[in-house]
Specification:
Layout (H helix, E strand, L loop, with lengths): L8 E8 L5 H8 L5 H4 L18 E8 L7 H26 L1
Antiparallel strand pairs: 1-2
């Protein structure tokens, strides 16, 4: 439960992968849904919806405690930019396999 005096930050970032199919991308991120196993400070990480063969869109949502010295907008921007970079690299990897 969030502390009333210290509300949680929430945000979302999405990336559309236009040059790749979902079947090509799912194998690259299958283990990402287990991120909390690699980073114990991540409370939960799971596939919210979708399955292999569905549309090719990645969505990250987050809830966190405020980060001292950072604005919420800065954190959202960092997460968005990171996801866009990751999506670009995944499409490049898939194109390199063909």
């Amino acid at each position: 439960m969030a502390d009333e005096g210290n509300p949680k930050w929430e945000g979302k970032a999405t990336a559309e992968l236009k040059a790749s199919t979902a079947e090509q991308i799912w194998p690259l991120i299958a283990e990402f849904c287990n991120l909390d196993k690699f980073f114990p400070t991540v409370d939960i990480c799971y596939r919210k919806e979708g399955s292999p063969g569905d549309g090719c869109k990645i969505e990250w949502t987050f809830v966190s405690d405020p980060i001292q010295g950072l604005k919420l907008e800065d954190l959202v921007s960092l997460i968005h930019d990171s996801l866009q970079f990751m999506a670009k690299k995944m499409e490049e990897a898939v194109q390199g396999q063909s």
